[in-house]
What we know:
alpha/beta; TIM Barrel; nine-stranded parallel beta sheet; 12 helices; about 50% helix; about 15% strand
Amino acid sequence: MNRIAQKFQALQQAQRKALVTYIVNGDPTPEITLAAMHRLVSAGADILEIGVPFSDPMAEGPVIQRSHERALVHGVSLRDTLALVKAFRADDQQTPVVLMGYANPVERMGYEAFALAAKEAGVDGLLTVDMPPEEAGELHPLLKQQGVESIFLLAPTSSEARVKKVAELAGGFIYYVSLKGVTGASHLDVASVKDKLAQISRFSSLPVLVGFGIKDGSSARAVAEYAEGVVMGSALVEIMGSGGSRDQILASLGDKVSSIRAALDQ
Length: 266
């Protein structure tokens, strides 16, 4: 069983909501990312989403765009990110790791080569922001063969036909974008989230996690009333780019995630 499925099974048994955290590999330097991953887990993260640096992260707001830029200064690549996951697995064989990025680096590496390398590194899922289900027909079965889940985004504007298509291919969980806009936006409408999650649940039994607009304990708790969990990105990426020392960044990450974990567990 894939680590993602194992994690949600354990969360369900414990009657807890999932907390997924996102940071970009190599931000602010390549040396800190591995330590940050372990700190996130120790503070209460259930699943780690690791951003693969890309020169044109079109779905991201300014905070995460700058994060990609900081990582690219150090030349951090998709292969470096796979090596990062492999290093993480030396000390953590349980926590699911999802790579989140864009199609170009995967296409350049080659779909089959990537799928094999992802399995070897210990990757559990891939979310390719600019690859809708209609274009995933070649990559999806190669990932599936290696036990790597294809994770897709749905949005407030997603049609019923798109929801059905995603439900046919998606594995692990479905990532629901809670608002119209880019990462880091703040106009969270919990009532709208509730209605859309009800629609998604008619077509898929996968857990649905909500991201974009989750900034603090109150927003996480409000959304988690209707979803299986939340994804937090921009608030953590702001900490990574704060300019603090390594120890300050790790401490702030831990404090932020611990506070969200406590809110979800209330």
